[in-house]
Amino acid sequence: MRLAAECELEALAGAPTQEELVLIAPGSGRPEQQRRTLRALESYSGRTSRISLAVDNLPGRLRGKQWYEKQHSRWLSLYRLDVFFLPYQLSPYLEKELPDIPVAVQVFDVIPIKFPHLARPVSLDAARRARDCWTKRAQVVLAPSRAARADIAGLGFPEDRVVVAPLGAAGGFRPREKARARAVLGLHGVPEKFILFVGSTEPRKNVPALIRAVGTLARQRAFHHDLLLVGQAGWGHAAVVDAIREHGLQERVHHLGRVPDEDLPLLYNLADCFAFPSWYEGFGLPVLEAFASGCPVVTSATPALHELSAGAALEVEPSDVEGLSRAIERVLGEPELAAAMVEKGLARAREFSWERTGTAVLEGLKQAATMRGREEARLP
Hints:
Blueprint: H1 4-13, E1 21-26, H2 31-45, E2 51-56, H3 64-78, E3 84-86, H4 92-97, E4 103-106, H5 111-114, H6 121-137, E5 140-143, H7 146-154, E6 162-164, H8 178-184, E7 194-198, H9 207-218, E8 226-230, H10 237-246, E9 253-257, H11 264-270, E10 273-276, H12 285-293, E11 297-300, H13 303-309, E12 314-316, H14 321-333, H15 335-349, H16 354-369, H17 374-377
Parallel strand pairs: 1-2, 3-4, 4-5, 5-6, 7-8, 7-10, 8-9, 10-11, 11-12
Helix pairs in contact: 1-2, 1-16, 8-11, 9-10, 9-14, 12-15
């Protein structure tokens, strides 16, 4: 699954603007991920002379604090930048090293701070330290939804400096011919009829509730669907395993883990229902991917997911397991409803694109560039 930052960079590379972009990346790290990132960056920089690529090819494996302190500020000093953009939250290490230039950061959500019981202690500590940095140092924060903007403003950051840049679904997420999709996925042992979930199995995603809902349906003689979980086993995965065992679903719940990028859109196409009962999201990209793929969606009635769905999905409270079960049952048992939901989802997906994301990001960077000096970045 492509990183949102990669898609944003691609959108920025193709944006109709004359601004020069300097892409700065470490030349070390996890080999597979690093090769992929550098290939992407090199492809962007090769499209136009207004994009430059700066890569640290240093010996050894400099990571985190070492790379920030030893190299990042060196690259920044070589360019006369109008604004520095991080497509992730600002690190305390980098905050100390940044020259006196405007900074824009991307904050996808503040879930560890808003819901600390859904985060590991180490994640909560990192989120708090990052928050302290960007509230003090960033001129502009980019958020993926109005709901995320409200959360960020709730932490004390001026709302007029939070720019909403919604995400998009990559071009591969589109309706496919099901027979061909099934032929491609035949070797994966994908069942004939299934409900799909995409995401990690960390507590925030509320997967045990989905398993309990499927367990309720599985007691019905006419229910013939399995549940496919796609994504890495997150912290707290034991609760998922326990829920599967508790409801006797060992043969009906399949955890595929990560799947190749090219296979994920096919799974959305083959699923009869996409279920995403997350407790909270900053945006909810899997829901948009399901919409774009022509899959009916059942999701949570929480702020960002409600904003994204806009009437195209069936929504239930994440604590309502019975409601989740009934909603899935309606999608599977009412063909006319499912068909109408597919059409609404496709229409909703057309309202989002990475090109629009790139335009919004660029506007945020321009806004940040008009603000000079650390004093302007500090909160009152």
